[in-house]
Amino acid sequence: MHIVFAASECAPFAKTGGLADVVGALPPELVKLGHEVTVYLPLYATVRQHIEGEWKYAVRSITIPFEHYNRFVGIVDGGKRNGVQYYFVDCPELFDRQGLYGTRTGDYPNNWERFGLFCRAVLEAAKLLGVPQVFHVHDWQAALIPVYLRTVYSLDPVLREAGVVLTIHNAGYQGWFPPDTTERLLFPWEIFTMDKLEQFDNFNFLKGGLVYSDMLTTVSRKYAEEIQTAEFGEKLDGVLRGRAADLRGILNGVDYAQWDPATDGNLAARYTPEDLAGKRECRADLLHAFGLEKVPESTPVIGIVSRFATQKGFDFVTEIADELAERNVALVALGTGEPIYERFFREWAFRNQANVAVQIRYDDALAHKIEAGADMFLMPSRYEPCGLNQIYSLKYGTAPVVRATGGLDDTIEEWNAELGTGTGFKFEGLKASGLLEAIDRALKAFEDKEGWKKLMRNGMALDYGWERPAKEYAEVYEEVARRRT
Ligand code: ADP
Ligand code: GLC
Questions:
Q1: What is the pTM of this model?
Q2: Spatial distance between the Cα atoms of 366 and 343, rounded to a whole number of angstroms
Q3: What percent of the chain has pLDDT over 70?
Q4: What is the bridge-based pairing of β-strands 376-379 and 176-177?
Q5: What single-letter DSSP state applies at residue 210?
């Protein structure tokens, strides 16, 4: 079957979070299953460095009409990698910028136009380069593809039979814009109603995708249930309950070619469940990278790698920060994001120079070093559709301490010292004291060296590779294709 992926991120070309990891890793796995996969991505400034030699245009110019003007996009042929065909949508005036979605001061105001154009360009390009049986679109940035397909393109004989699967990676980002976006993107006003794209008098990209796609998926079973409730649905829970029969939760895989301490080239030493010696070297290397060389061997190290966003539950950390820093523990954090949390981490580190350190930036190699060098990994997210870092942590023998939500709840099992079962530490509820208690359970468990090794090995033995989820996605595509013919 031919599947076209459309997304705003794809590793290694453009990444701000886990979406890029998924769109980077799932297509090659589908190719292994015998499918033909094409990926479309906007040609941002960061993509340029990945295009070797002279640009080869698969299509030189496609006209994308707007209300009183046209834009013209080229489709750059990114070639085949691991059997996957990549096409980059080139519209320099909209995409040739450093940030994917905005600058430090906020989102680009014309994101409606950037991603509206992207969606339409994918449909137009597919007509020239190959219409798939199924479009697999991701998050709000690609969510207008099904809307165009079933409204202004509905009579197109070439596109009519194509199905659409939309994956929700994060219901907290929906693409809200003013009502006149309807006209500016050349949609009929009929779609601006409560049962379609309108929401609280806004034009809502994601809602449109939820209404018009053939099937919906999200990235863990637990989150598939959670988003149907008012607490997690981000005001789309009603729409999602209405589509419950077409919604599946498919837990993300992780790419062990990138994230395995046995082969990871970013580390000071490699290690395996059988021979854990290298992890000590990784720990020393990590403490050196954060200027915490003096932390004694007996002190456990907690790592954080994250977007600093409210979603990630750092408000819990701010509440317990002073108490935590007094424990026998060291903390290293890597992240960027909301100024309030960047400032919190800087000040926390400044007040506790002996055992807390932070680096405010995006650094893939350092993220790997943290996974390997830390003893515990902290993810107290308020909500977490899947979460990849805790799954990386399992492979690196680094015990996750998580809030029991979404993919965190699905992937982490509480450690039971008597039975020797479990992989990490979880807390429920919305109290910071719950987090502190979970950390305290982890610190206590760490004191039992043999028990801790068992805990590490339990996690390292698990397989969260892409093989199983790729098969589940393939079943969804088959179902959609069946429904449309
Ligand atoms: P989300 O997509 O919500 O940010 P995930 O856990 O799914 O959360 O994925 C986050 C991804 O982004 C991981 O691959 C993680 O290593 C990476 N990441 C996040 N922040 C940074 C950073 N500051 N430096 C390097 N990698 C980061
Ligand atoms: C989103 C979610 C994260 C998930 C990622 C990939 O960014 O916040 O939980 O792992 O998408 O699906």
A1: 0.97
A2: 20
A3: 100
A4: unpaired
A5: H
- pLDDT per residue over 431-457, tens digit each? 999 999 999 999 999 999 999 999 999
Residue 204 bridge partners (DSSP): 176
Rounded CA-CA distance 434/440 in Å is 10
Residue 469, number of CB atoms within 10 A of its CB: 21
Distance 367 CA to ligand 1 centre (A): 8
Treating both helix axes as pointing N-terminal to C-terminal, what angle do 432-447 and 314-326 enclose, rounded to 10 degrees?
Answer: 50
Is residue 47 within 8 A of residue 35, CB to CB? The reply is no
pLDDT tens digits, 353-383: 999 999 999 999 999 999 999 999 999 999 9
Ligand nearest to the CA of 410: 2
Dihedral-angle region of residue 388 (phi above 0 means left; psi in -120 to 50 means alpha; beta otherwise): alpha
CB-ligand 2 contact for 254 (6 Å cutoff): no
- What's the full length of the chain, in residues? 485
Q: To the nearest 10°, the Cα dihedral for 191, 192, 195, 198?
A: 140
Peptide linkage before 12 cis (omega within 30 of 0): yes
SS3 397: coil
Tell me how far the alpha carbon of residue 404 lies from the centroid of ligand 1, in angstroms. Answer: 19
| Ligand 1 atom closest to the CA of 388, numbered from 1 | 6
Q: In the sheet that 376-379 helps form, which strands lie side by side, from edge to edge?
A: 356-359, 330-337, 301-308, 376-379, 399-403, 425-427
- Residue 301 tokens read as 């190290």
Which stretches does DSSP call E strand in 43-104?
57-65, 70-81, 84-90, 102-103
Tell me the DSSP string of 190-202.
Answer: GG-STTTTEETTE
252 close to 469: Cβ distance less than 8 angstroms: yes
* Whole-number pLDDT of residue 98: 87
Residue 216 has pLDDT above 90, yes or no: yes
Task: Tell me, in angstroms, the distance from the centre of ligand 2 to residue 57's CA.
Answer: 32
The mean pLDDT value for 237-251 works out to 98
Query: Which 3 state secondary structure label does DSSP give 400?
Result: strand
What digits encode the pLDDT tens for the residues 109-158?
999 999 999 999 999 999 999 999 999 999 999 999 999 999 999 999 99
Domains of the chain, first to last: 2-253+466-484 (3.40.50.2000), 277-460 (3.40.50.2000)
Q: Do the beta carbons of residue 406 and residue 385 sit within 8 Å?
A: yes
Tens of pLDDT, residues 304-341: 999 999 999 999 999 999 999 999 999 999 999 999 99
